[in-house]
Design a protein that fits this description.
homodimer, alpha/beta, 5-stranded parallel beta sheet
Chain lengths: ~240, ~240
């Protein structure tokens, strides 16, 4: 009997929404791999990553497996669920199978993949992992509104808007471009801050870039009091 | 005679080096467009963007035009040269032709394209511009060394290492991940700082990611006194 070789785990970024923003490498791997995992937030919930690549998959010859990665209050139960997922993936790898794990955007920028790898390498230290970078929603948002992220010797900061005010204020004062993620739940507070520091006219709002629901708002004052999409961000560029 | 429609300028990110990291959209446009501009630093110098996509271009049916975008000491002469380039592009657009302008990485992240658009829209305000985002060298470097750029509520800063020490120090103290670009000329000074703030073992060095000359260095102390490639960066992640 031959000694079995452990398979490779491919962390594949599928870009922010537009299926044409997949890389050629992601596209090739999606067609070659016989087993592809897609993350979902709860059983039966839609997988955004899967929706993006739906047209490129062929369920008649590929196994497409949804794994639940819930963000729970109960940290212990969440960790347990993640270990179960990692174990399932590890079993396939140990059996010598190459598998893909899809993530929206880029696998190393705010994605579940980082945790999958952490838990998995605990279980199965020998596993080979290849990360296929993808276009992030930050880049696609900047492209949609045509705002430079950084130029020459400029500095770019990317951070969640849920930070305390002083953190945001320092970033706005010291970086040429600041991208604030997760602005939906704190939009009024963020707009107050932008008014205060004189940057309100330098901000552009983008949500669900590349999806049919995409929204680009240049007059961000109009967002006050609105219920916004979870996938919302602001690009604030101090230079105009 | 029909009224001529002004053409569209496509700013196309071709990714950091590996030709397979082009997006499907960039790939399609590269094959459809009959005129593609590529930037070079001086006449006769290689175009990195062109090298990446060489296999996808067909000079027998496409016009591939190199434009010199020099970084000169003489700011006036540089601006004049850029205006001449913009005028050449504008003439084609006004004649109704769609054209592509290639950039390594992403068109809105440290790229010549931003300046092209600025000068061009001065000359030709009606021009339609479409930006096709691309994988940046920052993302490809993180993928190559498998270091997360940001997770959950973390913050990411991207900045040139040529900043004064206090600027770097503040960024290192307030961001979970800091990517320092252009480290080649200041590597010893940066290593001193990293030793000082206790982050030297948290830094990874990547140069020319995706090119045959790619170099990944985990023991960054070994870089002291070395002559490094211009396209060098450090990823410093305070959490391990």
């Amino acid at each position: 009997m031959n000694r079995q070789t452990v398979g490779t785990l491919y962390g594949i970024g599928v870009g922010p929404g537009d299926p044409e923003l997949l890389t050629l490498k992601a596209y090739r791997l999606l067609r070659e791999l016989s087993l592809v995992y897609v993350p979902v937030a709860r059983p039966g919930a839609p997988s955004y990553a899967r929706t993006i690549v739906e047209a490129y998959l062929d369920p008649s010859r590929q196994q497409i497996v949804e794994l639940v990665f819930a963000m729970r209050e109960d940290h212990e139960r969440m960790a347990e669920q993640w270990r179960i997922n990692a174990r399932r993936i590890a079993d396939e790898l140990v059996a010598g199978r190459d598998v893909g794990f899809l993530t929206e955007g880029d696998p190393l920028l705010y994605s579940t993949f980082v945790h999958v790898v952490t838990v998995l390498t605990d279980i199965c230290p020998d596993v080979a992992v290849i990360v296929v970078p993808g276009v992030s929603s930050v880049q696609a948002a900047a492209a949609a509104v045509r705002v430079p992220l950084a130029d020459r010797d400029e500095r770019l900061a990317i951070l969640p808007a849920t930070y305390e005010c002083t953190g945001l204020q320092t970033a706005l004062a010291t970086f040429d471009t600041v991208v604030l993620l997760k602005v939906a739940s704190v939009i009024d507070r963020v707009l107050d801050l932008l008014e205060e520091v004189g940057l309100i006219d330098h901000a552009v709002y983008v949500s669900r870039v590349g999806w049919p629901e995409e929204r680009l708002v240049h007059d961000v004052r109009s967002l006050r009091g609105q219920k916004l999409d979870y996938f919302s961000l602001l690009i604030i560029r101090s230079k105009r």
